Amino acid sequence: MTARKRYWLMKSEPDAFSIDDLQRVGTEPWNGVRNYQARNFMRDGMKVDDGVLFYHSNAKVPGIAGVARVASAAYPDATQFDPKSHYHDPKATPEQPRWFLVDVAFERKLKRTIPLEEIKQHADRLGEGFPLTSRGSRLSVFPVTAAQWKLLLALE
Predict the structure, then answer these.
(1) Are 99 and 41 contacting, i.e. CB atoms less than 8 angstroms apart?
(2) What are residue 114's DSSP bridge partners?
(3) Is the entire prediction scored with pTM above 0.90?
(4) Which residues form the EVE domain (predicted)?
């Protein structure tokens, strides 16, 4: 029996790494996540071929810009060991890594970015506690139910 496919939303600032960048490179390590809950989602929850909504945050029009998929199992984020990296963690060692990542592969750009303001109009249908419509939620990686996935992509 195969495991049920899961869905995720992953945020990136388009000035740092956009859906266009992912389309250009094809597959990219999702490095630099330094939030334990987001790390745990990648390390413990994500499986190869899970769906990813690629969200542009801190943009002129924040919103869902594309679809990707998880392309690898979780593995240690090498930037934690590099003293020259902005993401260096002096407490992490190769023997005891603290931060993990997955590779993400491009699937497609949406016909249009689904703006956050439009997503908020569907807060009731997305459910209480959905991170994009909840105040104070700043998670960069979080699970999306199959129903939420379907609803959000139907807005395209």
Answers:
(1) no
(2) 64
(3) yes
(4) 6-154
